[in-house]
Amino acid sequence: MSTLTDPAPALLWATPALRSPAEHLERAGERLWRVLDAHDAIRGHLRVVADPLGIRYRAERLQLASGSFRLVGEFWDANDAVAALRF
To answer: What is the mean pLDDT of the chain?
Structure first.
């Protein structure tokens, strides 16, 4: 009897489409994108989270001192999450 030691292949999520031309996304991880403005300055991060009711989008900011992400908000729409990172 053999056992499978390799984890199942990770699901590569499609990059969410944004309506606003003010920002664009750059993949930063399996379920994580950097949110960049028109000058390629990082505004924050967008993370996809599976929820029993559907896909959720988390707007996050990286805290350099701790190396962890701070939750700005969680949304049903990627555009709403990116809008929360504008200010």
So the answer is: 88
Q: What stretches of the chain show up as alpha helix (H) in DSSP?
A: 78-84
Q: Which residues pair with 60 in a beta bridge?
A: 45, 71
Which DSSP string do the residues of 2-27 spell out, in sequence order?
----SPPPPP-PPPPP-S-TTEEEEE
Lookup result for tokens 């707007």:
59
What pLDDT does 71 receive?
A: 97
Contact 61, 42 (CB under 8 A): no
Band (pLDDT 50/70/90 cuts) for residue 11 is low
- How far is the C-alpha of 81 from the C-alpha of 87, rounded, in Å? 12
